[in-house]
Amino acid sequence: MAAVATQGSTYEVIEITGRAGGTIDLRLGVSSFQYFEDIMSPVVTAVMGVVTSGDTIEGQGIYSGLPIVGGEKVRIHITSPMEKQREESPGVFELTMYVNRVSDYKLEKQRETFILHLVSKEGIVNMNKRILKKYKQKRIDEVIKDFLDILEADYEDENIEKTVNSINFIGNMRKPFTLAPMLAARGIPEVGKNSAGFFLWQTRKGMYFKSIEKMIFDAKENKEDTVKMEYIYDRGNEGLDDPEKSFAKIYSYGISNNKDVMAGMRTGENSTYRIYFNPHTFEFTRPEQSVFYPKEQEGMNSDEKPISEEADPTQIPKPEMANRIISGIYSVGCLEETIKDNEAATEVNNDNLSDVGQSISRYASIFTQVATLTVGLNTELCAGDIISCTFPKVSTENEVDPAQSGLYIIKEISHFSQGNRSYSALKVIRDTSGE
Prior knowledge:
Shape: globular
CATH class of one domain: Mainly Beta
CATH architecture of one domain: Beta Barrel
Number of helices: 11
CATH topology of one domain: Thrombin, subunit H
Number of strands: 22
Oligomer: single chain
Structural class: alpha+beta
């Protein structure tokens, strides 16, 4: 019988290796497996339910016999229904993770149950690393690559997007994944130089450092190459028994957020007033320099992002200036290596006026529309991928809803497998409505 997208998956390899040696096959003991990726997380995680007999290792269970104390390596290889159905593999799900902790351990007669919480190697290594370096006029993408090299993380150069701006800063013994989101927020891409804001995240394929603007630009301009899957939602259950249709079917969906006007104003999506103090000159930035209105941003679907008259920031009277006010103190001269001509260094290390307002606006706008979807298990999809969704209108006819349909970015994805069922759950985002 042909495979259907929500049928159970096959555990080809589920092995756990103890820290003192010894490898145990867990394939028959896995009761459930759920894997997570998120473009706002630099590590991937998973949760695995295990049920085994109590005398697996020399009269003991796996938990005490191996034993499992944290840090054990777990090798995973799962074959999805889509792989079974199609001759060309749509995405082999194979990776190695490590035990972060064990929860809900229970021992009943000859059976033990527990839950393994897994994390990628980089998540554990990050806790043992601190950045001691001083970075002087380094492009932000170069700094991110340096962090990833320190963590010995896997990445491809083409997946680390270049920034046009450089930065000066000292690590101050903070961890790489503590600093990385702060730097990503300040990155300005080559595409759309008026829109700062990057994400650093991990998938089973490696690490990615991409700007919001570039992700949207590629989705619009290179649609055939970037759209990973086209999904369709219909009110009936048509296609459930047809393998090919079941793979492209949205089984359930909901819109969890659709343009919160007041939230956007509070966060500074439409305007920010940035005030910075220079401790050398004892001067503040001038008002004409400080007001920021977003412009020339790529739109995921429609290029029009109308603002109601009541929310229009250009209507704000002086001296209020903007929806959100940001203040700070410039770092002046503290990264200069030498003092020239017996004069103190006066150079501003990083001019926050060039990127802070841009990133606040961009991060807020990309969450204009947020939807959650449940589809058949598709291990080809990863966080950060672009998908196309078609939704029907609320009517008696099967007409397409142009407001909800269109391109989306996968913010979060979870692959779930349990017994005779498996599926993928997605949280998808975009900054504009319409196809």
